[in-house]
Amino acid sequence: MKTSFNRYLEIDLTNQTFRHGQLEENRLRQFLGGKGVGLSLLVEQDRSIDPFDPENPLIFVTGPLTGSLIQTSARSAVVTRSPLTGNFLDSHAGGHFGPALRRAGWDYVSIQGASDLPAYLLITPEGAQFLDATDLWGKDVFETEETLRARHPGSKVAAIGPAGENRVRFAAICTERYRQFGRGGAGAVMGSKRLKAVVAVGTEAIPYADPERFRALSQELLAELQQHPNAKRRYDLGTMMWIRMGQEIGHFLPTHNFRDGQFLAYEGITAETCKRELSWKSVGCYGCSVIRCSKLARWNGREVEGPEYETAAFLGSGCEIGDAKELADANWLCDRYGLDSISTGVAISYAMECAERGLLSPEMNEKLRFGHAEGQQALIEDIAFRRGFGDLLAEGTRLASRVIGQGSEAFAIQCGGMEISGVNPLGCYSMGLNLATADFASHTRFWSATDEMNGNLTLDALPAYIKAGQDEINARNSLIICDFLPFGFDRLAPFMEAVTGFPTDAESLMKAGERIQSLSRLYNLRTGRSHADDTLPERFFSETSFAGLMKGRVIPKLFFEEQVQAIFQLRGWDAEGRPLPETLQRLGLSSSEAQGVPA
Ligand code: SF4
Fold this sequence. Notes:
The protein is of the alpha+beta class. It has three domains: 7-200, Aldehyde Ferredoxin Oxidoreductase,  A, domain 1; 232-412, Orthogonal Bundle (Aldehyde Ferredoxin Oxidoreductase Protein, subunit A, domain 2), CATH 1.10.569; 429-485 and 505-594, Aldehyde Ferredoxin Oxidoreductase Protein, subunit A, domain 3 (Orthogonal Bundle), CATH 1.10.599.10. The chain contains 25 helices and 17 strands. The strands form four sheets. The chain has a six-stranded mixed β-sheet with strand order 2-1-6-3-4-5. It has a six-stranded mixed β-sheet with strand order 8-7-12-9-10-11. Strands 13-14-15 form a three-stranded antiparallel β-sheet, with helices on one face. Helix 7 (211-226) runs antiparallel to helix 21 (489-500), helix 11 (309-316) runs parallel beside helix 13 (341-356) and helix 20 crosses helix 22. The longest helix is centred in the C-terminal third of the chain and has 21 residues, at 506-526. Iron/sulfur cluster (SF4) binds at residues 72, 74, 94, 284-285, 288, 291-294, 482, 484.
């Protein structure tokens, strides 16, 4: 049977050695690739006592569809133990880096240990070269990438900026200037290894078990996609279409640190305004010729890809910044220094609320105000360089709120240490339940907001709906295929079959997604998550919901816990969220995976 490369490269930064091999077939059948295989490698390889321990592996993963002929095949991920949550992280990026890694001959690159001096890695079909990065240390993302691409023609680069070097717990790994493996602090793990960049170059072909079938399937899907209304809408407005929809229809636009679901000045940051004020140009990731949801903004002599909806919702409405150019400036700073713009926005809006309530120093209380872009941008720089109050926020909202105290934990918008993203749960209850029960609290786990906004959900059916949604996204993040490709597993399974040669159907993909969720849960329990983390900040249980399934009500804590328990039951987990022995058996997971999980 032919398979994809399935080749891994294991790099030891401490001793500057590497080894390579091919993963066993069964692992691919069970975990598909991408997130799933990355998780299984992390479970085996991670012996860290802390995310900044050199023993914490940083694993770049692609999926069998990455870089292939199917539309939107650009994505790849980084898997590691997150310094923000202490638990599992898979952070995804589009662009060209994933396909470049496969062209360099590797599907999974696991980096362990730490370098004594700043280093970067050159990945080629021959393996890894360990190169000196002393001249790059301290440089921003833009300059680093420019230098390395000139030094290694034809390469793609994933690099960190000062935020990663300074171990800001939500530092990103950046690629192609404006794209990021953004969530959860993978950039800080890379900084802790004194690894400035990974450069991939090669011309290996992407293998297919049945190239003719794959090509025919791709052409058929392309023709259908060209006529699909969702593709056209995403091309026109990108993810920023959600600013207007969240404001006018859903009433869940995160505003004023999640106190509100509508923002008075929202017109200043809509897709239409950005298109006009920022001279947007549509750009696409590798292999994305139809949807091309990304937008290149050009203004005041600057350019940045975006802003994306999430950036606008947290650096924009969340902080009450209603000016497209000021928002784009903040976005540009995050990209330049290598910060996750979502966590940065949520941490700053939390700090703004603290200042509004007079909980910070007199100077910070004065300087940090909702709607003041200058204070926001100064704080972004202070976070990246860990200066003054920025040093505390660089620890993440959870840890900062523990230090600031004075009741501020209630409006520190994090779950298990991850600043939550997507929408305001006071306007979209299903997303709150989803975020609390996901492996970490990010919109990238499952997007239920469209269905709730359109009135398609009921409270009774929610646990089963959320479980299925999380399983599906796990599998998509393993194939890996972009969330915005508007086709389900009935259409995607044949692609998987044609590329790997394994019999695959929608059911086997969903089961793989379920397996991944149980394994990530075991890993999270082993690394310190407990059932006490499967909840939301107090704000969402004490203020009245303004829209969605809970409109006009305060979410009862007991009811929320009952819904969490219903999801656990459907998964075959006990009341603490521990997968039961029979669940492990049903999913083909070994009982040794449960080692280290508190009884
Ligand atoms: S739809 Fe957008 S995010 Fe997805 S591959 Fe295309 S450009 Fe990239």
